[in-house]
Amino acid sequence: MININDYQHKKILVLGLAKSGVVAASLLHQLGAFVTVNDYKPFEENPEAQGLLEQGIKVVCGSHPVELLDEGFELIVKNPGIPYSNPLVKGAVQLGLPIITEIELAYRISEAEMIGITGTNGKTTTTTLIYEMLDKAYRKPLIAGNIGTVASEVAQQATSENTMVVELSSFQLMGIQTFRPRIAIVTNLYEAHLDYHGSWKEYTQAKVDITKNQTKSDFLIVNADQQELLDLVSFTKANIIPFSTKEYLEEGASVKDGMLTYFGEEILSLEEIVLPGAHNLENILAAVASVKLMGVENEPIRQVLSSFTGVKHRTQFICEKDGRKFYNDSKATNILAASSALNAFSQPVILLAGGLDRGNGFEDFIPALNGVKALVLFGETAEKLEKAGRAAGIQIIQHVHNVEEAVPAAYELSEAGDVILLSPACASWDQYKTFEVRGDIFIDSVHKLVESK
Prior knowledge:
CATH topology of the largest domain: UDP-N-acetylmuramoyl-L-alanine:D-glutamate ligase
Number of helices: 17
Catalytic activity: UDP-N-acetyl-alpha-D-muramoyl-L-alanine + D-glutamate + ATP = UDP-N-acetyl-alpha-D-muramoyl-L-alanyl-D-glutamate + ADP + phosphate + H(+)
Enzyme class: ligase
Low-confidence stretches: none
Shape: globular
EC number: 6.3.2.9
CATH superfamily of the largest domain: Mur-like, catalytic domain
Main location: cytoplasm
Number of domains: 3
Number of strands: 20
Organism: Lederbergia citrea
Structural class: alpha/beta
């Protein structure tokens, strides 16, 4: 860790706790800042805030009072989940106060170079693949960011021998100042999180900000199958490394004659790759490009891709029972992600779907539903999804109360050779705290089913 003086004796407000806020507050306190923490959860129900108070950090809990801004803060470190529409945040913007996220802190203290991965879909799989390939090549990688491990916590342990592989959301990237990854990746861009960003322009700008501080000595790996994305990153000073699943690239990562290639070099046969789905081929190409830039040989890449079956909750194979294969894709919280999962299978699919109603329709989901054998629906969007399923010609549609009921219902509708897939196309918050909780309940329900049969 680099012991920087940037924050010494500065009055800093850490807005919102959760894991990133706790780590950021402790780190800034350690770096000599005068830290105040503000969290919406009441103090008596807030063990994180209680722990920070024991460290000597000032805490204000129970609301986000705009009056806090009268205390003369020089910087705000904002939890990524708190929107810019929050009155306190709006007030800070009006005052011209700089607002960062903890990823900026991580970058400033890290002795390790960083690979930053963003995009609408595929971030976690790409991040995990890069980590696994670097690990297999004995490169001492560290994984961090939106994937679950707070980056500024990992950065405190990182040395110059490590490489930090960091998954980044648009929420995090809106709060960077100097953050500059050695290698940046944008997997793809599709409409998402507009309830937070307010517009497609703001969302895409946040994503491509990953490259705004890069120089000609850095690299930007980008999906060449999306012309709009190429246009959006045309300002970059970094060396652009494109990848494509649709056309062969002599300079970039792509496919030719059934072989995965990088700058014309054959890496491995597509038949050796066990991770299913065309969408995952995008993730694989991006990952391969990044580790080849790091000088990794082909054998570690081949070892990972011939054994990697997926990240938990992302088209994750669970088990096979009586010829039925169960897959957990609880991370599919939008139509595009669920469509990609469905397109990964040639077998008949029993689809488990539904969740939070954000007010959108499912007309765009209809083409992906054409190959679905049966729908098992739950949550607030069940009726809307039934309407889309009927339009797609699905004859078998069953409603249940939750995921736990959906598993045995799907089994009864299936036969040998079918895939039973949880890919909800919706957020989980109507019934479950997170998509991980929803996925874990699915996994537990599958195992209970298997043990009972």
